[in-house]
């Protein structure tokens, strides 16, 4: 049955993706330009023979912003590699299909390991993968979109360590690492629910065995080794460097009425599906086990966290403000409530359906979910029909990227606009103290001898060069951000520099024509972290092979 269900999941994946891709266009909204610029930088660096990307030399207005250091991007490599063989628009939709099918597959096998029921796992995978909120994330919010792929495996790992087979601690280590490589904030959100589950374990079991504590600590320790390349840059380049990050604040909450009524509409967005809303309203009637009551409670609590009735004002000044948008909890609400929906609906169906009817039912469910998803995506398609193409703008424009349509022929227009959300993330706080400072970076303005110069950058991977002519020896303030491991050379010779009041590179020049090159050289500790991480993944793989062989005996 696994092959049948995976085939049906692939069918729904391809149908929904082709429906979007047939538009031959992309709606550039929300975080799209931020992530598209990161992918473009990776692609162009790969094209020039550089595998690693540290700073934005070609995108982000050539400011040298280090979002690549502090925002994981490993799962964007498939998208970047697809650019070598497909057009920009088709490359995105091919990557979209890969992530969607990966989500469906991981969801299916995670639920199968938890419930031991194929039909329940198939229903869970369909409803979770094609949930309206996840479909919304797939349009532009790609960090969270990727993290959602691994949440079922993560919570399976938590369940195994706390209640199930503690020898499967590796599930928690692997899934935790995968979430960290996708979206750091999702690690924080997941930890909130992990702590709640740990407390529930202590209460319901009146404690926890030493063996389970050991498994929990082992999984956490191994996870840290697996994600060292994500952790290390924060210690080597972020802490104590006066850098900014995404602004911590709770900027939007929903009302319960909005969540309830919106969930019965067809389009994707900040909502649950009507199936999960019905689960909230009716699940209490058929829940029998304490385990399912816990899941139900977690689902309701996640929904509560999305609303303004949770006292979010009390979180001011605390790490909980990093959530920013409370709609993020919809991913967790969808996860927990879909488990109940899948278990309940599959039990009812299996009582009345056997043999060939079960096959027909499975196919019908796939078709239904495909039609439901197409209905959710139809508004997006309609938007693509009516929104205008993104127009050209100057290379140093300070105009924020508009919510416009991208096609293959105008795809590159987006990179000349100011990135709408995240253009100044991970820059020195001193560069953000005024709009004038921010715009001076976007417009490539340098300062020399009391004059403002507009320079044209010469670009290579992780490297930005400027030709600067000085009438006398003087300091030049370049429109490139200075980080702890930034490197500077003048006329091919390594040169000292300081950080200016814009957080930029300031370097002393001699009289005459000078070529100033600003680059980034990662700390040796970073490369050591990659080596340790690779060894850890290999060691874990060897352990799993031996464990499976021993388990099979």
Radius of gyration using CA atoms only: 25 Å
Please indicate the percent range of residues in DSSP E strands (runs of 2 or more): 5-15%
Strand order of the largest sheet: 4-3-7-11-10
> Can you count the helices?
19
Q: What characteristic shape results from the CA principal axes?
A: globular
Low-confidence stretches: none
Total beta-strand segments? 12
Q: Kindly, what is the distance between the CA atoms of the first and last residues, rounded to a whole number of angstroms?
A: 24 Å
Q: Summarize the biggest pleated sheet.
A: 5 strands, antiparallel
Q: Into which percent range does the helicity of residues fall?
A: 40-55%
| Average pLDDT rating | 92
Structural class: alpha+beta
Structural write-up:
- The chain has 553 residues and is α+β, with helices and mostly antiparallel strands.
- Helix content is 54%, strand content 10%.
- Strands 4-3-7-11-10 form a 5-stranded antiparallel beta sheet. It has a 5-stranded antiparallel beta sheet with strand order 5-6-12-8-9, with no helix packed on it. The chain has a two-stranded antiparallel sheet with strand order 1-2.
């Amino acid at each position: 049955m696994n092959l049948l269900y995976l085939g049906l999941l692939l069918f729904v994946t391809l149908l929904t993706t082709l429906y979007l891709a047939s538009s031959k266009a992309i709606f550039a909204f929300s975080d799209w330009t931020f992530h598209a610029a990161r992918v473009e930088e990776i692609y162009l660096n790969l094209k020039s023979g550089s595998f690693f990307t540290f700073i934005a030399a070609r995108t982000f207005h050539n400011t040298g912003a280090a979002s690549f250091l502090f925002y994981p991007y490993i799962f964007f490599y498939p998208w970047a590699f697809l650019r070598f063989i497909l057009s920009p628009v088709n490359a995105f939709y091919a990557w979209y299909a890969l992530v969607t099918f990966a989500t469906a597959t991981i969801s299916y096998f995670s639920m199968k390991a938890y419930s031991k029921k194929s039909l329940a796992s198939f229903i869970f995978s369909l409803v979770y993968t094609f949930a309206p909120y996840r479909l919304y994330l797939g349009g532009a919010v790609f960090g969270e979109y990727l993290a959602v792929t691994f949440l079922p495996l993560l919570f399976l790992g938590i369940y195994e360590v706390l209640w199930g087979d503690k020898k499967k601690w590796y599930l928690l280590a692997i899934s935790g690492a995968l979430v960290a490589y996708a979206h750091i904030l999702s690690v924080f959100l997941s930890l909130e629910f992990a702590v709640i589950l740990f407390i529930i374990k202590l209460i319901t079991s009146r404690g926890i065995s030493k063996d389970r504590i050991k498994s929990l600590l082992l999984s956490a320790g191994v996870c840290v080794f697996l994600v060292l390349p994500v952790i290390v840059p924060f210690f080597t380049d972020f802490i104590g460097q006066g850098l900014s990050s995404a602004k911590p604040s709770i900027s939007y909450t929903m009302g319960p009425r909005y969540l309830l009524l919106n969930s019965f509409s067809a389009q994707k967005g900040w909502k649950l599906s009507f199936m999960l809303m019905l689960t909230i309203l009716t699940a209490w009637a058929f829940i029998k086990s304490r385990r399912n009551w816990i899941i139900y409670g977690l689902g309701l609590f996640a929904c509560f966290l999305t609303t303004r009735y949770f006292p979010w004002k009390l979180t001011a000044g605390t790490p909980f403000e990093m959530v920013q948008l409370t709609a993020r909890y919809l991913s967790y609400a969808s996860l927990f409530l879909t488990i109940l929906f899948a278990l309940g609906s599959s039990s009812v169906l299996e009582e009345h359906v056997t043999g060939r009817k079960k096959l027909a039912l499975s196919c019908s469910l796939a078709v239904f979910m495909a039609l439901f998803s197409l209905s959710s995506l139809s508004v997006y398609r309609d938007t693509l029909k009516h929104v205008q193409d993104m127009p050209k703008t100057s290379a140093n424009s300070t105009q924020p990227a508009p919510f416009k349509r991208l096609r293959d022929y105008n795809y590159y227009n987006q990179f000349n606009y100011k990135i709408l959300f995240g253009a100044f993330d991970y820059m020195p706080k001193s560069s953000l103290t005024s709009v004038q400072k921010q715009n001076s970076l976007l417009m490539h303005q340098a300062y020399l001898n009391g004059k403002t110069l507009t320079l044209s950058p010469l670009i290579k991977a992780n490297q930005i060069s400027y030709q600067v002519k000085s009438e006398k020896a003087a300091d030049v303030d370049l429109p490139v951000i200075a980080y702890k491991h930034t490197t500077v050379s003048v006329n091919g010779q390594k040169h000292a520099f300081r950080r200016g009041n814009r957080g930029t590179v300031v370097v002393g020049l001699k009289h005459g024509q000078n070529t100033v090159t600003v680059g980034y050289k990662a700390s040796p500790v970073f490369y050591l972290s990659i080596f340790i991480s690779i060894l850890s993944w290999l060691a874990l793989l060897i352990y799993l092979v031996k464990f499976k062989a021993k388990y099979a005996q």
